[in-house]
Amino acid sequence: MATILITGGAGYVGAHCCLALKRAGHDVVVYDNLFNGHEQFVKWGPFERGDIRDKARLVDVFARHKPAAVVHCAALIEVGESVKAPDRFYDNNVTGALVLLDVMREAGVKPFVFSSTCATYGAPQRLPMDETHPQNPVSPYGWTKLMIERASADIAAAYGLKFAHLRYFNAAGAAPEEGIGERHEPETHAIPLALMTLLGRRESFKIFGTDWETRDGSCLRDYVHVLDLADAHVRAVERLLAGGESLAANLGTGDGVTVLELLAAIERVAGKRVPASPAPRREGDAPALVADITLARRDLGWTAMRNIDVVIADAWRWHFEIEPKLFGP
Ligand code: UDP
C-alpha cells in the first residue's frame, strides 16, 4: 500500500482513479488547479490546490506527502480548443508535465502513470490500432501528449524513471453511486450531448457525418467505461511499484460502436428516442478508431469489464440524478 499523487485528481478520469486506488487500499493525494476539475470530486484523500507549472508548490507537496508514485491526469483536453490556442496547450500540458517530471526526479519518485490518448496515433492506418501504430497526431492536443510520452521515455532512459503511457480511446460512463461523472464546459462529447438532448437541454443531437465508410455511415469509436480505465491505472501503478518494466498500452474495449448504434443503445437503456439529425462531418474526425487491446491484457492483466449499455446506464444516472444535485439543474 502506497501514497499516490494524482494530478488532475478533481477531474473526470482523475477522480475515478482516486476512487479505484482507494478501493485497492492505497492512499491518494489530489493535486489540481480546479481549472477543469471540481472540488466536489475530491473525496478519497487530501486536496492540494495547485498548478503543475508551479514548481515550488509541487516541491512542497512532494515533501509533505512523500508519494511513492504519480498518476498524471492534469491536462487541457479539448481538441478543438488546442487548434485555436495551441500555446496554452503546450504551456499547460508540456511545460507543466516537464516541471512535474523534474520534481519527481529531485524527489526520487520513479513510477509515472501518464494519461495519454489514442490521439497520439493520428489518422488510423490500420484497425484495430496496436501500440506499434505510427504516432503522427493531427491536433496540438495530440502532440502535447506525444511529446510527454517521448520526454518521459527519454527521462526514464537517463534517470531510471518508470513510466506507463496509457492511451485511452473514448472515456465514457460514470460512477453515479460515488457522486462522480463527466462534466465539461463546454461539453463536446457524444454521450453527454445525446443524454442532454434527452433531458431537453438541447433540441437535437447532430450526427456528424452519415457518409463515412463504416457499417452504417456514421463514425465508429471505442467507448471504454471510466471505471475500467481507472482499474487499469491501479494495475499500472502496482506494476511499476513492484519493479515491473515501463510500458505503453492502449485502453479500450477492442469493440467499435457507431454513432447510430450509440443512439440505439441510449434508446434501449432510457426507453426514449433521442431526437437526432444528420449534420456535416466534424473537422478532424477519423472515420473509425478501435483499440487492439492485446498488450494491456497481457502486461496489465486488464480488460474492460463494462459494455456500452453499462456505460450509458451509468452516464444516464449521473446526468439525470446526481449531477443536478451536486451542481444544480
Ligand atoms: N459526435 C456526433 N455528434 C456530437 C458529438 C460527437 O456525431 O454532437 C460523434 C463524433 O463525430 C465522433 C463520436 O461522436 O465520431 C465521438 O465523439 P466525441 O467528441 O465524444 O469523442 P472523440 O472521438 O472526438 O474523442
Structure description:
The chain is an alpha/beta fold and 329 residues long. The chain folds into 2 domains: 3-172 and 224-251, Rossmann fold (3-Layer(aba) Sandwich); 176-221 and 254-327, UDP-galactose 4-epimerase, domain 1 (Alpha-Beta Complex), CATH 3.90.25. The chain is 41% helix and 17% strand. It contains 10 helices and 13 strands. The protein has a 7-stranded parallel beta sheet with strand order 3-2-1-4-5-6-11, with helices on both faces. It has a two-stranded parallel ribbon with strand order 7-10. Helix 2 (55-65) runs parallel beside helix 4 (86-107) and helix 6 packs across helix 10. The longest helix is centred in the N-terminal third of the chain and has 22 residues, at 86-107. The chain is globular, with a radius of gyration of 19 Å. The model has no long low-confidence stretch (mean pLDDT 97). The structure holds uridine-5'-diphosphate (UDP). Residues 170, 188-190, 193, 205-208, 219, 221, 259, 282, 285 line the site of uridine-5'-diphosphate.
